[in-house]
Amino acid sequence: VLAAPDGRVVLTTDVMVEGPDFRRAWSLPAELGWKAAATNLADVAAMGARATGLLVALTAPGSTQVALLEGIADGLAAACAALAPGCGVVGGDLTRSPTLTIAVTAIGSLDGRAPVLRSGARPGDVLAYAGRLGLAAAGLRLLFDAGEADVAAVQRLRAERADLLAEQLAPSPPIDAGPVAADAGATAMLDVSDGLLLDATRIARASGVVLDLHRAALDADVAAVRAASGLDLQAALAAVLGGGEDHGLLACFPADVPLPVGFRRLGDVRSGEPAVLLDGDPLAAAGWDSFAAEH
Amino acid sequence: VLAAPDGRVVLTTDVMVEGPDFRRAWSLPAELGWKAAATNLADVAAMGARATGLLVALTAPGSTQVALLEGIADGLAAACAALAPGCGVVGGDLTRSPTLTIAVTAIGSLDGRAPVLRSGARPGDVLAYAGRLGLAAAGLRLLFDAGEADVAAVQRLRAERADLLAEQLAPSPPIDAGPVAADAGATAMLDVSDGLLLDATRIARASGVVLDLHRAALDADVAAVRAASGLDLQAALAAVLGGGEDHGLLACFPADVPLPVGFRRLGDVRSGEPAVLLDGDPLAAAGWDSFAAEH
If exposure means fewest CB atoms within 10 Å of the residue's CB, which of A167, A267, B42, B216 is most exposed? Predict the structure, then answer.
């Protein structure tokens, strides 16, 4: 039984599956729990809500070590404490399965705010973002390059690129920025889980608008990815535009509203056939689709 | 965003995993969806709440036919319409996994009632039950006897024992009885998902009481199991006492309260070291534990 102070609850659910979504060769158990919490907390924040509780349904093989489950629980608790104080795991399920999966349902309170949907962006709005872009994807690329079999290579990578890998393995998206954006009058918002282009396309289609990204606004992101990962310019730009898993907040604001703390301008909202442009040129929506993925 | 009329929500989650929890050789897709909804609706009812929405997180192999997913969706909708009008699927997730799983989170409203916990039973209370006992387990036993490989045998069984198999594959627990029991003053309640003895033991331990089942009160259940399944007396009694998956509501009521419609007396609540007895004799708690199961 969970409080719903304003008579409504925000609900979201997201599953992490061993194989498509994570590898135990790369992630510590606590990182699995942290990421499962952080991604769902970002989904609540993207509605403009404050997370109030998580339900966690774990499925695991009968041979699973209890320490793995304890590590996942520790990571869930740590992410809640760090990213959404006052939120914690309030219930769940544990059952046997051939595949290790972590299904989290997050519950949030709008505290009287109107929910921020994907469909409210209007021509003339400013497109803005809070969080990092491309680092999570760059970290994943280095992990794929290291592979799963070579334990020493993974350990070396974890030691040498700790900050970058944390963006992929235990991200800290700006959860606080969600309610702040809602209070500031955000017209549309979502968290960038599947890549900037794909998620921007979702706002463009739901709102019936054109989103025009400014290439110059991404310069710092591209440079940060290059510095942290050693990727070349093209690969770094691809990570920033299509990489996904950063879980920052992509939002639109009326032009006359000062951008709230944590947000920076990425581009403009214009009228026209729904599309995402880069300095006025069309971009195909590329991003993460678990059923289309090769990995 | 879901309404929470009295400023609280009841939450529960339960996962069904292919293999441990269901076989596609036995269940139609719509039955999988029906059962996933019904079991979670029973968990909400057991708190004394009215279900208001389901979140459904499906994981499925990339080779999964869309018709399977559509069938699951149809079954979810049909179970909500039949068992909890006004409730429906309000969101979810779909992702790729080697293992087909259906993780449902159910949300409910207490509509101002106090939640009914497991811990409120008091000596002198009446132990009562709404729903069937043993039929789901008897149906499962016939399915195991038929096996998975012999498609004709399964089809014959489905034709000849349709009503019994429905108790296992697409159960219709008395969801309405949950809020009714709460209004009548139930002191403790849960749904019998893991077997009468195991679930009764949970109430006994949480409440610090002895639950004494009356063997005569189970006569009709044993007879119904024998008639529907052809099992002998001993196997039928084992199904009634330990079988599980009936998802009826086991509740305790003060002795001076008339049992609400749908409930029948199964026994008494007494003081003493927490235990479950049958006509005064101790019974070991046997029931379903997915990690201990042989299947």
Answer: B216
Q: Tell me if chain B has a CB within 8 Å of the CB of A5.
A: yes
Which is nearest to A252 in space by CA: A193, A293, A206, A221? A206
Question: Could you tell me if A9 lies within 8 Å of chain B, comparing CB atoms?
Answer: yes
- Quick: pLDDT tens for B177-210: 999 999 999 999 999 999 999 999 999 999 999 9
Chain A residues with CB under 8 Å of B92 CB are 13
Q: How many residues does this entry show for chain A?
A: 295
Mean pLDDT (chain B) is 95
Q: Which of A57, A107, A290 sits opposite B95 (nearest CB)?
A: A290
Q: Find chain B residues with C-beta within 8 A of A61's C-beta.
A: none
CB contacts of A7 in chain B (<8 Å) are 3-5, 7
ipTM of this complex? 0.92
Question: Side chain identity at B292, as an amino acid letter?
Answer: A
CB A76, CB A91: distance < 8 Å: no
Range list of β-strands (E), chain B: 2-3, 8-17, 50-60, 89-96, 101-109, 126-130, 188-191, 210-213, 249-253, 264-270, 275-278, 281-282
Q: Are strands B89-96 and B50-60 parallel, antiparallel or unpaired?
A: parallel
CA angle B135, B203, B270 (to 5 degrees): 105
| A95: nearest CB among B59, B115, B290 | B290
Of B13, B19, B97, nearest to A105 by CB-CB distance is B13
Would you call B105 and A11 a contact, using CB atoms and an 8 Å cutoff? yes
